[in-house]
Amino acid sequence: MTPLQSLAATGTKLWLDSVDPDLIKLNRSQGATGATSNPIIISDLLKTGRFDEHMKTFFAQGKSDEEVAWLMTDKLVKDAQDVFLDVWSDTRGDDGWVSFELDPLLEDLAQTKNTEERAATYIELGKKWAAGHKNRMIKVPATPGGLGAIEELVAAGICPNITLIFSERQYLLARDAVWRGVQRRSDKENVKSVYSIFVSRVDVYTEKHVPTLIPAAQGQVGIVNAKRIWKMNKDFWADKGLPRKQEMIFASTGTKKMADGTTPPAEKYVAALAGSDIETNPPQTNADVAASGLTFTRQVDQLPPADVLADIDAKVDMKKLEETLMSEGLSKFADPHKALIKLIGEKRAALK
User: Fold this and answer.
1) What residue ranges do the domains of the chain occupy?
2) What was the pLDDT predicted at 338?
3) Structure confidence at residue 340 (pLDDT)
4) Assign residue 49 a region: left if phi > 0, alpha if psi is -120 to 50, beta otherwise?
5) DSSP assignment letter at 104
6) Number of H helices, E strands in the chain
7) Average pLDDT, the chain
8) CA diameter of the chain
9) pLDDT at 334 (0 to 100)
10) Residues 6+ apart with CB under 8 A from 275
């Protein structure tokens, strides 16, 4: 059994944080059962020149740079969906999904729409980009505008991937909005929701902002936070009678460089969260795990010792953590889409 196969055997669903057609096929052969996308992923693919002919067709049709950005995203996500459609069918819609991220510019600091207007736009776009797709998830951020759209999206039959979650507070707001939407539906057998909790970014934050954590606790906060929210989610949905699982996505699982100059093994977060729900790993993380030689065991329900938990609870201000990481996250959210549109403009000029 390969390391990735052993990870899947623990109960973890492995989704690739990419829609690169070549990587999708490779990772599907290695056990991946879904994927996610974002503007950085799309930009990196378009930079390669592999999709120039597709863009030239759209340019010839008079499409604007922003329209081409969305048309290419739609195409690349749809191609990935086709690869995982058999998984979706075999699991009756419990797996085999590919996430399509809605317009990040709705969260741009220059945006003048208020919360209600943003929510309305998320609803409109969610319905537009979900229409006609069996195994496409719609990715919405856990911002005020995004959270305000979730109930209506779920009520309309859309399966959401709620992203940019850093805290229990955000998770609870997202989950309760989903549940309200579920109760408005007659087709409850088709309900599927996932909640993307970011992991490694939390540990980067505590290294910088909470240096007084004991050594055993430093580098564990993201894992503890994710495991606690996983347990809340598991317990909430246990008695709701939905055929499909409502799951956590453990995101931001690629390790970041630590303050002391060492880089932890790529499998740190992968191993700690093995055993349930979904991990969306960057391609390099999957490659490192595949080369690790490790056999994974269920760890998702195992917490550190009581003294570690007590130190984390005493010293980490989760409200401040959420505010800081959300501010950073929104910059990382909107700026790449601006860069994608700029890249397409440059491609337009170069391909004339």
Assistant:
1) 3-351
2) 93
3) 95
4) left
5) G
6) 14, 8
7) 94
8) 64
9) 85
10) 10, 11, 12, 297, 298, 299, 300, 301
How far is 236 from 178, CA to CA, in rounded Å? Answer: 12
CA-closest candidate to residue 193, choices 179, 172, 214, 204: 179
Q: Taking the chain, what is the end-to-end CA distance rounded to the nearest angstrom?
A: 50
Residues of the chain with pLDDT below 50 are: 259-261
**Nearest by Cα to 10 from 265, 250, 284, 266:** 250
Q: What is the pLDDT of residues 166-217, one digit of tens each?
A: 999 999 999 999 999 999 999 999 999 999 999 999 999 999 999 999 999 9
Q: What whole-number distance in Å separates Cα of residue 136 and Cα of residue 100? A: 7
Task: Provide the H-helix boundaries in 156-303.
Answer: 168-183, 200-209, 221-237, 268-272, 283-290
The two structure tokens encoding residue 265: 């093994």
Retrieve residue 177's tokens.
């909005």
Alpha-carbon distance of 26 to 32, in angstroms, equals: 9
Helix (H) or strand (E) holding 137: strand 136-141
Residue 228 neighbours by CB distance under 10 Å: 15
Q: Residues 148, 181: contact at Cβ < 8 Å? A: no
**Full-prediction pTM beyond 0.90?**
yes
Which residues, listed in sequence order, are joined to residue 140 by a DSSP beta bridge?
162
CA-to-CA distance for 118 and 111, rounded, in angstroms? 9
- Determine the pLDDT at residue 34: 97
Share of the chain above pLDDT 90, in %: 87
User: The tokens of 289 are what?
Assistant: 């795990």
- Provide the CATH number for the domain formed by 3-351 in this structure: 3.20.20.70
